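In this section we walk through a basic example: taking a raw amino acid sequence and producing a predicted 3D structure, encoded as discrete structure tokens. The instruction is simple. Fold the sequence below.
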Amino acid sequence: MSNELIAIFNSIVANATPLVIAGIGETITERAGVVNLSLDGSIVLAAMVGFVAALASGSVIVGVIAAMLVGALVALIIAAADIDLKQDQVAIGFVLTLLCADLAQFLGQGYTRTPGPQFPFTPLPLLSDVPIFGAILFNHQPQVYVSFALTFAAWYLLFHTRQGLALRAVGERPEAAFARGTNVSRLRYLYVVLGGALVGLAGAAYSLALKPGWSTPPAMRGDGWIALAIVIFGGWHPFRVVFGAYLFAGLRALASAIQRSPDIQIPLVLLNGLPWILMILTLVLVSSGALERLTRALPRPMQRWTRGLLRSDPPAALGTRFEKS
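The resulting token sequence is shown next.
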């Protein structure tokens, strides 16, 4: 594999990382039965606050903590509005995404294009020396390795622990979980705030690593909506969410490569919209069951595996309010 191709794959992994982190956070939130529609604004506000905190303190760790607190606070507002105030979580989330984005641009005006601290590149010893895969996966800034760990941790939590079973229960059948002694409201608070903190971490991954600094309009604007789409595409499963994030980053890289090529003449607007178009098309195919119907033409031993891979049923109680009877 040529060095240029390795560099492209390395860039795809780096660019997908904030989407992976935000997608894992939203997966945990939605598995608990709550939709955090504030992702786009929350990422933007967390990115701004994280950068300003890191600039003021001289420490990227302080910036990361500040960004995660912002994401957690926004998610807490959604949880409180839904659980205690009995308000529509989707409407509250949509209002918050607009409010947070505008607030970030207003408060961040004085920091536009100001140089500040960022995560250093930290190739992992030994692993980064592995041919091809080492250069692609283990020659990055720390947030990339954090995304790897988060993916496996979320998968293990959801499918291999009692806590994960309780989490899935409150998102699927909260009444049954409550009848068995689970405090549904407390668990929803816990996992919504945890998911929000990870969304804030995604914001810090932008402003302290991938797109260091702050600019108006924000460089990461719109990526929160992408993360929401990737969660649906990924069928609320951590590994499929990661695949969706890498796929989207790859489509962006492809559009950028085509744009730079003098031999291919495609309108710029179409190129910029290519990742969105293909993602929407994939979502339609998966959610409509068209891909599942196509699997019936496959040999029988492959059908069960393929259907499991393509299955994208949302948590049964997603977006619904739990009322104690």
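Looking at the output, two observations stand out. Residues 3-219 form one domain. The chain has a mean pLDDT of 87. In the next section we compare this with other chains.
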